[in-house]
Amino acid sequence: RIIMGIETSCDETGVGLARLFEDGADDAAEPRVELLADEVASSVELHARYGGVVPEVASRAHLEAMAPTTRRALATAGLSLSDVDAIAVTAGPGLAGSLLVGVAAAKAYAAALDVPLYGVNHLAGHVAVDTLEHGPLPKPCLALLVSGGHTQLLRVDDVATKITELGSTVDDAAGEAYDKVARIVGLPYPGGPPIDKAAKEGDPEAIAFPRGMTGPRDAPFDFSFSGLKTAVARWIEAAERQSEPIPVPDVCASFQEAVADVLTMKAVAAAREYGIGTMVISGGVAANSRLSALARERCEAAGIELRVPRPRLCTDNGAMIAALGAHVVAADLPTSPLDFSATPALPVSTVTVR
Ligand code: ATP
Ligand code: MG
Ligand code: FE
C-alpha cells in the first residue's frame, strides 16, 4: 500500500510517500517500509531576519506550498493521487496555525480519495523515519529526540502504539540553545549548522561551560540548557569588557561539547537503566557532527547499537509522517475521525489521535 504523509508543524511544508510491503508474512514480522518521495518546502529564509519562526508567516507559507509540494512528491514517485491508499498527517505537537493547514489539506485529500486518514504525532514521526533508512526498529529501543522545539528521551516499545517519555528538557530545547547561542556570538539563524562549522576550528576544552542537570539530586533523564546559554552570554560579556577579541570557534566548540556531552551521557545512562540495546537519535540537532561522533563512541563502549538517520531525514519532513503512517496502517489501528483537530501540545504518548 502507498501512504502519503503530510507535515506542517513548524516552518517546513513536507509531503512524503512511502510503500508498505505486505508480503503475506506472519503477523509477528515487523512491517517493511520503503521511501518513495520526500519533498520539503521550507520558509526558514523568511524567518531568518527575525531570528526565529514567525507563526503567521509560517502558516501563510504552508498554504502556498501545500499543493505544489504534494504535486512534486507524486511526480518524484511517478504516482498520481489515485494511487494513494492512506494519508497520515501531523496532528501535533506544533504551531496551531501551521498544523491546521496540513490537517485541512489531509482531510480534503482523504475525503476526495475516500481513503483512511490518520492524525499522527510529529515526535513519533521523528523516530519512525529511521525505519526508512535502517529497517525495522528493535523492540524496545531508546530514542533521543533533539530538535528546535523538543529534547526528550523516549522508550519506544512500538513506534505506532507505545512510546513513553523518560525525560525531557525543563527549559530550552537543544536546538533552541544552538539558535540562541548563535545569535549571541553573531552567527546566522538557524544556529546549528554555522556553530557546527565554526566549532571544527575551535578547541572543545578551551572553556569549561556547565553541564546542566547533572548534579546528584537532579532528575537523571531530564535536561536543562538555559543555564548553558546564559553562561555563554556571560563569558562573551566578560571578554568584551576586557576588550578582548572573541574566539568564536573556541566558544562554539566548547558550547557544542557541553551539549553533546550531556545528551549522550544521559541517553547512554537511560539505555543502561532500562536494559535497552538500541539507540536512535533524531530531530534537527541529530545532524550535529560532534553529537553523532560522541554518541557513536559512547554507545560502542557501552555495547549499544546506534542508529542516526541521514541529516535530511532528521529535520522536519513529510517522509517521517509517511513512515509513521505506514506503521500505523500495518498495526491496523482505527482511523482518525474526519473532525479531529490539530493539537498544538499533543503528548508524545498519543501516537495517533482518535
Ligand atoms: P520540532 O521540535 O517541532 O521538531 P523544529 O522544526 O525546530 O521543531 P527540526 O527541523 O527537527 O526542528 O530542527 C531544527 C533545529 O535543529 C534548529 O534549532 C537547528 O539549529 C538545529 N540544527 C540543525 N542542524 C544542526 C547541526 N548541525 N548542529 C546542531 N543543531 C542543528
Ligand atoms: Mg524547522
Ligand atoms: Fe520536528
UniProtKB/TrEMBL annotation:
Localization terms from the record: Cytoplasm
Family in the record: Belongs to the KAE1 / TsaD family.
Reaction equation(s) it catalyzes: L-threonylcarbamoyladenylate + adenosine(37) in tRNA = N(6)-L-threonylcarbamoyladenosine(37) in tRNA + AMP + H(+)
Stored InterPro entries: ATPase_NBD (IPR043129), Gcp-like_dom (IPR000905), KAE1/TsaD (IPR017861), Peptidase_M22_CS (IPR017860), TsaD (IPR022450)
Pfam families linked: TsaD
Domain Gcp-like, residue spans: 34-322
GO molecular function: tRNA N(6)-L-threonylcarbamoyladenine synthase activity
Record function comment: Required for the formation of a threonylcarbamoyl group on adenosine at position 37 (t(6)A37) in tRNAs that read codons beginning with adenine. Is involved in the transfer of the threonylcarbamoyl moiety of threonylcarbamoyl-AMP (TC-AMP) to the N6 group of A37, together with TsaE and TsaB. TsaD likely plays a direct catalytic role in this reaction.
Cofactor: Fe(2+)
EC number: 2.3.1.234
The species this protein was found in: Haloechinothrix salitolerans
HAMAP family (UniProt xref): TsaD
Keyword set, alphabetical order: Acyltransferase, Cytoplasm, Iron, Metal-binding, Transferase, tRNA processing
PROSITE patterns, per database record: GLYCOPROTEASE
Protein name stated in the entry: tRNA N6-adenosine threonylcarbamoyltransferase
Top-level division of the source organism's lineage: Bacteria
EC primary class: transferase
Binding-site positions, substrate: 145-149, 179, 192, 196, 288
Cofactor binding note of this UniProt entry: Binds 1 Fe(2+) ion per subunit.
